[in-house]
Amino acid sequence: MNIEQTKDYELIAKLNKPVHDLHCSLYPKYFREYNFEDVKDLFKQLMKNRDFIFLLVKEDKEALGYAWIERRHYPENVFNKEYMSIYVHQISIVQSERNKGYGTFLMEEIYRFATTQAIDLVELDYWVDNKIAKEFYKKQNFVKYREFVYKQLPPPSDL
């Protein structure tokens, strides 16, 4: 098992399908159906940002999953002190390879990467109905420090 950084946006787009399909099934109101060409184009653009890092987890040269992380800088302002974090946008492991330690291996690499960048905070969020993510990050000892809430308003009435 090994991890490497990649700029292969086509491979990341293919590996993105399971996580996107999960989001689409949980929240069809907010997620469009997966479209490889559109997703590929998006990742091609995202990879131009030097603060976005894509990590591949491989076994015997076969890509089994990825993590999309970001180096985030929060500048000081009148409310907050300046700090940096590594933000985990997505982790996706191919369905047939889940529960074999690949996600944990990716997270350990993310922690190592943060340390080499002198960053001591790893942040992420996940959809509340994504029980797999909730349990995974609980095992990784992530703790809640903010809650993101919403209220769905009724559609405006026609006048």
TrEMBL record:
Would you say which domain of life the source belongs to? Bacteria
Q: Which SUPFAM superfamilies match?
A: Acyl-CoA N-acyltransferases (Nat) (SSF55729)
Q: Which Pfam families match?
A: Acetyltransf_1
Coiled coil located at which positions? none
Residue ranges occupied by any N-acetyltransferase domain in the UniProt entry:
10-156
Which Gene3D superfamilies does this chain map to? 3.40.630.30
Matching InterPro entries, A to Z?
Answer: Acyl_CoA_acyltransferase (IPR016181), GNAT_dom (IPR000182)
Q: What protein is this chain from?
A: N-acetyltransferase domain-containing protein
